[in-house]
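fwd from M.: "can u put these together and see what the complex looks like"

so here's what she sent:
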Amino acid sequence: MALESLVGYNLKRAYVILQNDYRAVMGDHGLSPRVFSALTFVVETPNLTQSDLARRLGIERSGLVAIVDELEGRGYLCRVAVPQDRRVQALSPTDAGVQAYEAALKLVHDHEDRILHTLDAVERAQLLHLLKKIRETGE
Amino acid sequence: MALESLVGYNLKRAYVILQNDYRAVMGDHGLSPRVFSALTFVVETPNLTQSDLARRLGIERSGLVAIVDELEGRGYLCRVAVPQDRRVQALSPTDAGVQAYEAALKLVHDHEDRILHTLDAVERAQLLHLLKKIRETGE
DNA sequence: TATTGTTATACTCTATAACTATA
DNA sequence: TATAGTTATAGAGTATAACAATA
C-alpha cells in the first residue's frame, strides 16, 4: 500500500487520533485546540496584539476574531486599548484566564502522556525534533 | 512556550505545512489528499466496496459518497453492481484511473522529497515509524 | 498609502440522522 | 433486524474581500 510510506498520510492519521483524544479529554465545553493555543500565547506573551497572535498561530486576522471573542466571553482575557497606537487591541489575560490555562495544560499533558504511552522519552523527543524540522522548512 | 513541547501542536503545524505544499504541487484541479487516498485504495484493492473504503479511510460512509462521485465524474472508477449482494457497489478503477493514480503518486513523491529535504533517509524512516506507532495506539 | 480589527461570505471536511433497498 | 448506499443538514475551521478607524 503506497500510502503507508507517505509521511503526509501518516501525519494526518496520527493528527486525527491525537485530536479526537484531545477533545474526549477536554470535554464538550472544553477549549478547542486552537482556542487553547491562543490562550497559551496570551498568557505567556505580554502586550500581545491580535495581529501578532494571528501571525504566530499561522491563521488570518479575520479568523482570530471568533477565537478572541470566545476567550473574552469566557472571561479569560480582556481587549485593552493601547494609547500609543489606537488601532490595536492588546490581549491581556485575566486571573481566571491564567487559572483556566494552567488547568487545561495539565489536562493536555495527561492526554498526551496517555495517547503516547507506547513512545518512550527518547522516541517522543525524536518525534518533536523531527516535527520541528518540518516546521522550520515550511516557514 | 508550553506549546513547543506538545506533540499535538507540532503535529498540527507540520501537517498544515505538508498539506499546503501538497495542494500547491497538485494544482487547483488536482486530486485533494482524501480523494488521492481513496483512489489509492481503489487501485490497490480488488473488489473494494464503499463501506470497506470508508472504514479504511477512517471516515463515515456518508462522507465517502462525494469522494466516489468525484472519482467517478473524472472517469477514474466505476460503481459496479455485485450479483451476490445487491446492496453493495464494488469500486473498480478504470484505465484512466490507474494512469491518473500513477501520475499523482509521482507528484506526491516529488512533493514529499522536496518538503522533507532537511530530513535524511534515517530520520524520515524514524518519523514514519513513530507516526505509525501513534496510529496503532489509536485504532 | 499601509495596518488593525472587524464583518460578510464561501468553501472544505466531517459528523449525525433519516431514508431506500436489500439481506 | 441489520447493513449498504444515499441525501439532507449542520458545525468546525479556514480563507478572501471589503470596510472604518487610525497610522
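replying to her w this: DSSP finds six helices and three strands in chain B.
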